[in-house]
Amino acid sequence: MTGTVYSIDGRELRSMELDDAVFGLPENSEVIWYAINNELANKRLGTASTKDRGEIHGSNARPYRQKGTGRARRGDKKSPLLVGGGTIFGPKPRDFSYTIPKKAKRLAMRTILSLKMQSGTLKVVEDFSIESGKTKELVKLLENFGEPQRTVLILKDNDPATKRAAANIPWLSYLSYNRLHAHELFYGRRVLLLETAAKNLNEFYGESQGAAHEL
């Protein structure tokens, strides 16, 4: 398929070839859901912790005698039925993370890129870098592509200066072409893809590369 490359001023510059295996796939909501839930699960800390009756500090002696009081039998004050006692089946620290097949993850990324391209929310932009690292310069550049909204910027490489400028913009997130995040990419209302990053994606997720990963 053919895509349009825009200048940093928001004007159409030229066209470029985009791999159909990366930007022309049909919608696949199941694999997208699979990848997003995996990322969210991997971010969970799982540090919530409660104490059961064996971990509560207190005496093991009976609070009162077994018979003759007219009350229920109590072995100690640490019973989960009493205020200040232990917790029944409470949470303990655990690891929620899990892995998904590489083929499924790659398919999810390609499907999201295709979805954004087909909906018109993804634009290929000529390469640029905010060498000064100033946020105001990046904001001024982004204004050429519309009003501020949840935006994802896909970089062609590790660009510390541009990342520093983007870090102070609350509605902007940045990703490297080889480290895409399904959650950020899917929920971005606007995706700006640098031209070299688009070429790298053609190679990284293209048919030939995908076949190599399946071997």
Tell me about this structure:
With 215 residues, the protein is of the alpha/beta class. It has two domains: 2-44 and 100-214, Ribosomal Protein L4, Chain: A, CATH 3.40.1370; 48-95, no CATH class. It has helices spanning 20-23, 29-43, 102-119, 135-142, 160-166, 182-187, 195-204, 207-214, and strands at 2-6, 12-17, 122-125, 151-155, 172-176, 190-194. A six-stranded mixed sheet has the order 2-1-3-6-4-5. Strand 4 (151-155), helix 5 and strand 5 form a beta-alpha-beta unit. The model is unreliable at 211-215 (pLDDT under 50).
Distance between the termini: 26 Å
Rg from C-alpha positions? Answer: 27 Å
The residue-averaged pLDDT reads: 91
Number of domains: 2
Structural class designation: alpha/beta
The H-level CATH homologous superfamily of the largest domain, spelled out, is Ribosomal protein L4/L1
The main sheet comes to: 6 strands, mixed
CATH structural architecture of the largest domain: 3-Layer(aba) Sandwich
The largest beta-sheet arranges its strands as 2-1-3-6-4-5
Q: Supply the CATH class of the largest domain.
A: Alpha Beta
The counted number of beta strands is 6
Helix content: 25-40%
Indicate the low-confidence ranges by residue numbers: 211-215
Task: Provide a count of the helices.
Answer: 8
Query: What is the ordering of alpha helices and beta strands?
Result: EEHHHEHEHEHEHH
> What is the percentage of strand-forming residues?
5-15%
Shape: elongated
CATH level 3 topology of the largest domain: Ribosomal Protein L4, Chain: A
